[in-house]
Each structure stands twice: as C-alpha cells, then as structure tokens.
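Moderator note: this is an archived Q&A kept for reference. The question asked for a predicted structure of one protein chain; the sequence and the answer are reproduced below.
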Amino acid sequence: MSTLKVDTIQGKTTSGTVAMPAGHVIQIVKSTVGTSGSTTSTSFVATDIAVNITPKFNNSLIRIDVQGVWWLHLSPSSEEYFKTTVYRDSTNIGSATGSRVNQFRSGYADSGNAYNYNNGFTIFTFDTPNTLSQVTYKLYVHSGSGNEVRYSDATTENTITAMEIKQ
C-alpha cells in the first residue's frame, strides 16, 4: 500500500496547467442573497439573485443551481403562476434551450386575496459560455397574470451556485 501526500499540485512547466479529466469539477462559486424583491410584470425582469464565475477552460460546462423561496399573491377565483429563467449576461439561456424555463403554479385561494407563503423552489440549468472571461448568471422572474410574486425577502436567504465542469 502506498500513500501520496502533497501540499500543492502544480503543472510541470507552468503553474495552473495540470490536466484534469473530463467530468471533474474545476470550481464552485456560490452567492447568497437576502434582500427583498418582487414583481407584477408579465415579462421577465432581473432579480438580484446572481453569481459571477470566470471559467478556467474555454469549453467547460457550467451548471447553475438556484434555491429560493417565493410568495405568490392569489386571486380568489383563479390559479396563479410565475416563471423563472436564468440569463448569462444578457442572454436568456433558459429560453435558448427551449425547456429550461421553469413554471411554478399555486392553487386557488378560498376567499378574498391571500398569499401562498414559503414555497421553496430549486432550478438548475447548464451552459457552455465558451469564454475565459467572467460571466454573470442571474435569475429572472415574471408573473403569470400580473399578480405580485415575491421571489426573496430580507429574512430568507436565496442562493445561486455556478459549478464549472471539465469537458
């Protein structure tokens, strides 16, 4: 049995040039947001839930995960919903893939107006930005019917994580 103990792994000729096999996680960057946000827009609007990552390889796959809590203002006689997607800088990567726009529905309120509180959501998508420059991934949201959607508040932390995976 052999044991290999090291303090640093470094490229033979240049620092930072160690070849990693495909499928290995290169880096993970996480951002936590605890500020309030809401919208009544029926078009996608930017939230403050965002993360920056600078890929180390041109062809890396980036997995973006968002975990959060939402509150949906319900009408007394209709089902309400809201949609989320993720943008890379100014590109909607959710819509670009055709199937990554997430829709969350809530049932009817019994009487009067009500909020459906504290429903968590988790979304993820993949992207290949083909760059070595910093990119920003940001959550966008829109109301299905124009009712208020609260996508974060000051008492609940929402997180967005970008994971670079070697290809």
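Archived answer notes: Confidence is low (pLDDT under 50) at residues 96-100.
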